[in-house]
Amino acid sequence: MYLACIINCPAIRAFGKHCRPLSNIMTGLTELSRNKSFGGWQTVFSHESKVLGCTMKFGVYLPPTENDTENLPVIYWLSGLTCSEANFIEKAGAQRYAAEHKVIIVNPDTSPRGLNIPGDSDSWDFGVAAGFYLNATQDPWKNNYKMYDYIIKELLDLVNSNFNTQAGNQSIMGHSMGGHGALVLSLKNPGLFKSVSAFAPICNPSICPWGIKAFSGYLGPKETGQWEEWDATELVKKYKGPPLELFIDQGLNDNFYPAQLNPKNLVEASKGAGVPVIFKERESYNHSYFYIASFIGEHIGYHAQHLK
Ligand SMILES: N[C@@H](CCC(=O)N[C@@H](CS)C(=O)NCC(=O)O)C(=O)O
């Protein structure tokens, strides 16, 4: 009776392909919104995160498929400072290309929310919407500000157990702070992601104002030796694992370039470490989602090649 009721629920039937409604209910996902887009569905879910100790939202774009059982690869997108899951969904224009290449896109929020830790909303580049995709070690952040563990240990499993994915066939990309996150997550987990790309990433956070502020607060002083564990320019020097190419994209009219972003430091370090880099410089483009939307198709196409 209960099962029949769930299966016949119009909201669940209307959800469309690529979702296992029963397991969604069982694993505690709540569907917040669903919009048809390019033949597929742009959805937003919330769930109670054990790792972060708060309710989190994330977007899932489900492309159209021939049948309900087809498993598809996933591309993860990590957003930048001040963003929630909404910015990418509404501004990047990724749905068209995800539908074309038949890939699922998952995009989480950028920090824990709703905890009201003293000081978490005092500035736009630290605390809420500025989690930096690391595991904090300092009070009062260390119990909740663990975006690295959230993505690696919780979100990937949650996505693979609730959607028709090809588990293990996944790539990652991001913007600015999220570009830093994409690079760090792939360099720290050799082989976990088939490919990585980044728009205007913070490439050497240990030496730029955003990174120094975040690392000092979340990790403590540089002298503790923790900063280099979260800095792509340092991590690439000791990368050992399956071949990994770094696709770095940079607008040349970006007001944060080069001081906050420093892509050339990463390009040089990668060359020294024998890690190949594609470095694309885009004349006249700035840091905004207008820039991202202009090249997101190229990035999704790049990842789709690696996910075949
Ligand atoms: N608030 C900052 C800008 C922050 C910013 O540019 N954030 C980027 C990521 S680093 C972003 O994606 N913003 C949200 C948006 O453009 O929708 C400022 O006023 O300078």
TrEMBL record:
<protein>
    <recommendedName>
        <fullName>S-formylglutathione hydrolase</fullName>
        <ecNumber>3.1.2.12</ecNumber>
    </recommendedName>
</protein>
<feature type="active site" description="Charge relay system">
    <location>
        <position position="176"/>
    </location>
</feature>
<keyword id="KW-0719">Serine esterase</keyword>
<feature type="active site" description="Charge relay system">
    <location>
        <position position="287"/>
    </location>
</feature>
<dbReference type="InterPro" id="IPR000801">
    <property type="entry name" value="Esterase-like"/>
</dbReference>
<dbReference type="GO" id="GO:0018738">
    <property type="term" value="F:S-formylglutathione hydrolase activity"/>
</dbReference>
<dbReference type="GO" id="GO:0005829">
    <property type="term" value="C:cytosol"/>
</dbReference>
<dbReference type="InterPro" id="IPR029058">
    <property type="entry name" value="AB_hydrolase_fold"/>
</dbReference>
<dbReference type="InterPro" id="IPR014186">
    <property type="entry name" value="S-formylglutathione_hydrol"/>
</dbReference>
<dbReference type="GO" id="GO:0052689">
    <property type="term" value="F:carboxylic ester hydrolase activity"/>
</dbReference>
<comment type="similarity">
    <text>Belongs to the esterase D family.</text>
</comment>
<comment type="function">
    <text>Serine hydrolase involved in the detoxification of formaldehyde.</text>
</comment>
<feature type="active site" description="Charge relay system">
    <location>
        <position position="254"/>
    </location>
</feature>
<dbReference type="Pfam" id="PF00756">
    <property type="entry name" value="Esterase"/>
</dbReference>
<keyword id="KW-0963">Cytoplasm</keyword>
<dbReference type="GO" id="GO:0046294">
    <property type="term" value="P:formaldehyde catabolic process"/>
</dbReference>
<keyword id="KW-0378">Hydrolase</keyword>
